[in-house]
Amino acid sequence: MMKYAAVLFTIFIVLVIILADRGLLGPLHFIYDFPYGDKAGHFILYGLLNFFITLASIRSLLRFDPKRVALSIGLILALLIGAEEYSQKFFANRTFDLIDLLAGYIGLVAGGWAALKIKRP
Predict the structure, then answer these.
(1) Staple partner for 111: which of 24, 51, 86, 97, CB 3.0–4.6 Å?
(2) pTM to 2 decimals?
(3) Averaged in consecutive runs of 10 residues, what is the pLDDT profile of the chain (121 residues)?
(4) What is d(CA 5, CA 59) in angstroms, rounded to the nearest whole number?
(5) What are the φ/ψ torsions at residue 106 (nearest 5 degrees)?
(6) Residue 81 CB partners (closer than 8 Å, separation 6+)
(7) Angle at 24 between CA 77 and CA 31, to 5 degrees
(8) H-helix or E-strand containing 25?
(9) pLDDT of 29
(10) What sign has the CA pseudo-torsion 104, 108, 110, 114?
(11) Nearest to residue 94, comparing CAs of 18, 15, 14, 13?
């Protein structure tokens, strides 16, 4: 079940990124209607992404140390999140922001920590 959640949430995140890059967020654009809403969005979305992927991976890779799995997933996601934030420099509808990146990284840590806390198979 957790694998499906991880896959579906990853697809959701990719779609949100594509829509944002094209300026087509539609009703999802409400997150920009209040102060720091985009920062909260980065924290929540990337935290949930790491949570789902890390928990699914820990439960699937039982012979590996859960902390190493969580660290590996977290580092890979950190690189992807950094690349995605940097890529915003090349889209007219997006703005590169180090605070957004920091919010995403904090969410990443929180999601990985939560997955480790409830890692039972």
Answers:
(1) 51
(2) 0.90
(3) 92 92 79 80 96 96 94 98 95 91 98 92 60
(4) 13
(5) -65, -40
(6) 46, 101, 104, 105, 108
(7) 65
(8) none
(9) 67
(10) positive
(11) 18
